[in-house]
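agent> call fold_tool(seq_1)
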Amino acid sequence: MADELKGRKVAVLATDGVEQVELTEPVKALKEAGATVHVIAPKGGQIQGMNHHDKGDMIPVDAALDSADPSSYDALVLPGGVINPDQLRLESKAIDFVRHFVQSAKPIGAICHGPWTLIDAGGVKGKRMTSWPSLRNDLTNAGATWVDEQVVTDNGLVTSRKPDDIPAFTRKVIEEIREGRHDNRRQQAAE
């Protein structure tokens, strides 16, 4: 549905080395669902996309991390690629940005190596998750229950394993954003 996320703002946090399709396809699906989507990176300008081991396209950045306010977004997407989340883990502002979504219980979608950043932001303990298989021990050691499934949802956290999972991943992320916004309104009405 073209307007199911109308009025929602989604942040996609990435940097150089992002697996291109894990950024571009969710952005496309979210925009088609009516969301406003901003690619946020530690630096402005553009970031280098990757097609596995090969350089892909340069991807425009909508906002530099310094100027992005996480409280103005309804949800967060963390694309993978090996280099991207590994670099983001070294950026304290990126970890703080992700931690806002974890602590606010806002919907988060993380695919492939994207969950690495969630470990540093304290967002995996007690969660049922999936990822690229090489993250299994990292997630388990951080307190998550790792499973090998196409898409896993645990209280607003949506995780998937690889580019082949993108259609299922984006459907679940859109669903969680739609429901997350609804639940927030219901909670506000009860107060």
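agent> call fold_tool(seq_2)
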Amino acid sequence: MTFVIAGGVEISGALSELKNFILPKDYPDLSRMSIHIIQATFRLVSGMSQASSYATMNYIKKSVVNIWLNCLVKDYDGNPVYIDNGKKIESGP
């Protein structure tokens, strides 16, 4: 199962906490999910200070979330997510 979130730092953090703390105990098969966050800017939470942005990024990375900075979602047709850097992320179950 793969989740791809465009710019949702809060959602990706919540999903990573589910993945790391809740799902392994109750639903071990679901704990294998991968989480990707696609951010159009060069850093996460760009409206906050640079220090806060880097602290957020380090926390999210430790939570095993893949971070794609300076990227836009180019196309989504129901399963793969195409990013403007040429990458394709398979999403869904």
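agent> summarizing second result for user.
Residues 37 and 66 are 6 Å apart (CA to CA). The first helix runs from residue 9 to 26.
agent> awaiting next instruction.
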